Amino acid sequence: MKVSIIIVNFNGQKYIADCVDSVLRSNFKEFEVVVVENGSSDKSWQLLNKQYNNNHQVKLIKSKANLFFTGGSNLGAKNAIGSWLVFLNADTCVEADWLKELWSVAKKNTKLLLQPKILMQSTDQIDCVIGKYIWPGYGQAVGRGHKDHYQGLVWGDYANGTCLMINRQWFFKLGGFDERFKHFYEDVDLQLRAKRQGSQAVGVMNAKIWHKGSLSFKQNVASEVIGYYYQRNRFLTVIKNFSGIDRCLRLTVLGLSSLLRPKSILSVRAIFDVIWGRDFLELAKPNLTAKT
Questions:
Q1: Among 268, 67, 261, 39, CA closest to 181
Q2: Is the model more confident about 8 or about 229?
Q3: How many percent of the chain have pLDDT more than 90?
Q4: pLDDT confidence tier of residue 278, bands split at 50, 70 and 90
Q5: Is the pLDDT of residue 216 over 90?
Q6: For residue 195, what pLDDT is reported?
Q7: φ, ψ (nearest 5 deg) of residue 164
Q8: How far apart are CA 130 and CA 136, in angstroms?
Q9: What is the DSSP track for 132-177?
């Protein structure tokens, strides 16, 4: 099996079938779909069982609890058999040749982290063509809100977690996603770890998918919680991946800029949790072992 497409679903009853069905229509056929039902409280599991239980290309994995994006993705990776993994958000739909285009680039270099061109649903506007990591520690989706004019390959700092392709052995060697992140900046952290070992990030513009706009977060996570994790995980990314004066300067600027924002109490909590909490004391360790 060349590719395993891992889709983590949490309360996505209204859109998960659109995503899976679009993937099954791909004209590159050497793939499996691994759907992780991530502790939903809606009827997602019943829907998935009804529509895909007898489909040999779809593997259904049920988690008893919400493992968040990072834990659900790692669970899917453990149960995948493809030589490459694609982590795909449940609120997306893909073009028929998306996987063929990604594979044509991926097979040439096992240390690449790849993403397709991600477009906003039902528009010609870009959601992300590649990620850019801006000092002191901000992730930015290149092209967001612009009309689509990107072609060829676009190189950047990280592949966006909305749709991220990575060699399976390379993913396990890196230790998988750090589950402390839960969601947000886990893709930046993965790329920074990979970069130290010679990896690069590339957007493949001939591969296209459409993103409905983080529906799972909007429906299931309060805006204050989202804001907290964005800030917390910026700090955590810097603490994990930088050292010395560079780390100190980045943290100082991030801290000051965060405290100047509305609802600065969230920033104080984020800073406290990272610097004085368990996350600060535990350095990144590989926490993922391939299923044998």
A1: 67
A2: 8
A3: 78
A4: very low
A5: no
A6: 97
A7: -130, 130
A8: 19
A9: EEETTTEEEETTTTSBS---SEEEESB--TTEEEEEHHHHHHHTS-
* CATH T-level topology, domain 3-213: Spore Coat Polysaccharide Biosynthesis Protein SpsA; Chain A (3.90.550)
Of the candidates 132, 191, 198, 139, the one whose C-alpha atom is nearest the C-alpha of residue 165 is 191
Contacts of 127 (CB under 8 A, 6+ apart): 118, 119, 120, 141, 143, 144, 162, 211, 213
The answer to whether 191 touches 178, Cβ cutoff 8 Å, is: no
What's the maximum distance between 2 C-alpha atoms anywhere in the chain? 56
Q: Report CA torsion sign: 190, 191, 197, 202.
A: positive
Bridge partners of residue 126, in order along the sequence:
119
19: nearest Cα among 66, 84, 98, 88 = 88
Tell me, what DSSP letter sits at residue 75? H
pLDDT at 190: 98
The structure tokens listed for 41 are 């409280």
Tally of residues, the chain: 292
- Overall pTM > 0.85: yes
Residue 292 has what pLDDT?
34
First CA to last CA distance, the chain: 15
What is the pLDDT confidence band of residue 277, given thresholds at 50, 70 and 90? Answer: low
Which structure tokens are listed for 211?
Answer: 């993103």
Q: Which range is least confidently modeled, 7-16, 21-30, 210-219?
A: 210-219
Identify whether the C-beta of residue 99 lies closer than 8 Å to the C-beta of residue 4.
no
HSE, CB side, 13 Å, CA atoms: give it for residue 144: 12
